[in-house]
Amino acid sequence: MMDTQRLILLFIFGFSLLMLWDAWEKEHRPKPAAPAPQAVPATPAPAKPGAAPAAVPGAPAGVRAPEAGVPAAAPAAARGETIVARTDLFAAEIDSFGATLKRVELLKHKEAKDSAKHFVLLGPEHRFEAQSGLTSGPNHQTQWTLRPGSSTLADGQDTLEVRLTGQGADGVVVDKVYRFRRDSYLIEVALEMRNAGSGPVTPYAYFQLTHDGKPSADANTLAASFGAQSFNGFAVYTEEKKFQKVQLSDVDKGKPDHVKQASDGWLAYVQHYFVAAWIPPPKAERDYSVLRRPDGTYAGYVRLAAGSLAPGASATVAVPLYAGPQEQRRLVAVAPGFDLVVDYGWLTIIAWPLFWLLEKFHALSGNWGVAIILLTVLIKLIFFPLSAASYKSMAKMKLITPRLQKLREMYEHDRQKMNQAMMELYKTEKINPLGGCFPILVQIPVFIALYWVLLAAIELRHAPFVLWITDLSALDPYYVLPILMAGTMILQTRMNPTPPDPVQAKVMQIMPFIFSVFFFFFPAGLVLYWLVNNILSILQQWQIQRMFDRDKPAHAKR
Question: Across the strands, what pairs with 163?
Fold first, then answer.
């Protein structure tokens, strides 16, 4: 039984090494030459009866946009006046050229590599911008005029409003309004349109996110190189298709897989710990499109029809932009399915309740490290009967290990007789050779899910534990936890019965050291979980072994 259990563990370990090596190769192998970028046409917005087609900005009158209608990237050098809107959560830079949200600095979060600086979500480093406008009017290639007003959220003030005005060739005048609210990462972006021309118009509004597609600094950790990198790219959610990740490799091929038209949902750019998303109002027909632009960046936009505007008529299209952390309590309040941007891998259904418990323990203790310890203890208690069965099997195996060794020596040249004799011994001692394997297999999905919870939860980012551990999402700076972890693994190995096979015995002696190497590259929160789990396992195994040493069956003493 113990040999079988160890073989299963060895198989899991070997398969993990293979996957980690493959992930490392993908991360570090030379990148192939990128194909010539091409803009992928988007699906046109559903036309209303009598609606006029959208025109290409700057094109002669009457020329229709070729199926897209959303302007291409603005010239990199183009820039206007910059205003910085400051709230309790943001320092947001708005450029009057395009009235574009060029930079968003999150004042409650620090940079991954420099805790003295605030984290920049939108910004020039990744050409991450939030653009908006009309397909046939003022857009992100238009020079807008900044209207007078305050740019700082004052004490006692709940809302800050920044207003810019632009005008299109067809006579449509647009006020673009950014509304920031206290203690909110939602920024309302409203396009207030007025037809100052002599004829009716049918404008379409678009709201777009751009990005270079490269992972953020938070994702570029050593742990990410070992195959634990979170999703980085666009995502589309609708009630019909639910959460759809849009792989950038599919966008490069011109075949992004996502819903193109819907009457609900949202579009986001997701990265490790943070997200930016346009959240259109429900029951409004909209198009979704993700494409690679000629300048090599990616763009994802949502487009909505504003209806027909007669001369002198007005209309408003308002779409909130969420730009902030993937905090569960905030995400669930934004829109249906928005909490799915937190990447818990393929075991999300198990990860959600684990995170819920972790939050409850944090509310009780006030420390995320203590919350991890309490959650580990709870999981250990839940699996106590299974673990006890496994350790009892191991204890029984330890008692009969000398007799198994004699059988191996007796039938060294006849494997069939050796297996028959071993099975007879198992039957006599009432030992199930696979008795210790099932408890391990049942617990593996829970361990993997908890691994992803600890890896993906932004609540642990820069969260202190004790003394030298000031960030549970970063490496232990002095490697104290990994060294203690290695010690517990070595102690566990020595407590287990030695395999009769010399090769297996040697492998099991080496495995703790090999596994320990990986823990030197994992965040402190993950190492803390495994360390506490190992200590509890050692105590449980020691107690069960004591009971068996005290009450050895008479036939096991022979």
Answer: 177
Last residue of a domain, one of 301, 324, 343: 343
State the pairing for strand pair 82-86/100-110: unpaired
Question: Given CA atoms 406, 412, 417, 419 in this order, what sign does their dihedral have?
Answer: positive
Claim to verify: residue 157 and residue 301 sit in the same structural domain = yes
What pLDDT tens digit does each residue of the chain (558 aa) get?
Answer: 334 444 444 445 544 544 444 444 444 444 434 444 343 333 334 333 333 334 333 333 333 333 446 777 666 556 778 999 999 999 999 999 999 999 999 999 999 888 889 999 999 999 999 999 999 889 999 999 999 888 999 998 999 999 999 998 888 999 999 999 999 999 999 999 999 988 899 999 999 999 999 988 776 454 444 445 678 999 999 999 999 999 999 999 988 999 999 999 999 999 999 999 999 999 999 999 999 999 899 999 999 998 889 999 999 999 999 999 999 999 999 999 999 999 887 888 899 999 999 999 999 999 999 999 999 999 888 887 777 766 666 667 767 777 777 777 787 777 787 778 878 877 777 666 665 566 667 777 887 888 888 888 899 888 999 889 998 888 888 999 999 988 888 887 777 666 656 666 677 677 777 777 778 888 888 889 989 988 988 887 787 767 666 655 544 444
Q: Judge contact between 115 and 218, C-beta under 8 A.
A: no
Looking at the structure, do residues 368 and 430 belong to the same domain, yes or no? yes
Give the separation between CA 299 and CA 71, rounded to whole angstroms: 11
Residues 6 or more apart whose Cβ sits within 8 Å of residue 423: 433
498 with 379, same domain?
yes
Residue labelled with tokens 């991890």 = 372
Residue 147 lies in a domain: yes
The reply to whether 300 and 428 lie within a common domain is no
CATH code of 133's domain = 2.70.98.90
Q: Is the domain of 362 the same as that of 331?
A: no
Selection from 402, 399, 421, 423 nearest residue 411 by Cα: 421
Tell whether 193 is covered by a domain. yes
Same domain, 365 and 513: yes
Q: Does the predicted model carry a pTM greater than 0.85? A: no
Neighbours of 100 (CB within 10 A): 27
Going by the DSSP 8-state scheme, the letter that residue 172 receives in this structure is: E
Tokens of 453: 């919870």
Task: Give the range of the structural domain holding residue 361, as residue numbers without chain letter.
Answer: 2-22+353-556
Q: Does the residue 49 lie in any domain?
A: no
Beta bridge partners of 150: none
**Whether the Cβ atoms of residue 153 and residue 181 lie closer than 8 Å to each other:** no
Instruction: Count the domains in the chain.
Output: 2
Shared domain check, 337 and 372: no
The answer to whether 243 and 234 are in contact (CB under 8 A) is no
3-state SS of 35-55 is: CCCCCCCCCCCCCCCCCCCCE
Q: Is 335 found in the same domain as 374?
A: no
- Nearest-angstrom CA–CA distance, 51 and 432: 75
Distances (CA, A) of 235 to 5, 205, 259: 41, 20, 10
Instruction: Answer with the one of 292, 313, 343 that is the final residue of a domain.
Output: 343
44, part of any domain: no
Contacts of 551 (CB under 8 A, 6+ apart): none
